[in-house]
Amino acid sequence: MKTPAQFAAELVRPEIRAINAYPVAPATGMIKLDAMENPFHLPDALRAELGRELAEVAINRYPDASGAAVKTALRAVLGIDERFSLILGNGSDELIQIVAVSLAKPGAAMLAVEPSFVMYRANAMLAQMRYVGVPLRPDFTLDTDLVLAAIAREAPALIFLAYPNNPTGNLFPLVDIERVVREAPGLVVIDEAYHPFAQVSFADRLAEFPNAIVMRTLSKLGLAGIRLGYAFGDPAWIAEFDKTRPPYNLNSLTQAVALIVLKHADVLAGQAATLRAERDALSDRLRRLPHMQVFPSAANFLLVRVPDANASFSRLQDAGILIKNLHGWHPLLSNCLRLSIGTPQENVALFGALQSM
Ligand SMILES: Cc1ncc(COP(=O)(O)O)c(C=O)c1O
Question: What is the rounded CA–CA span in Å between residue 180 and residue 147?
Answer without folding.
Answer: 7
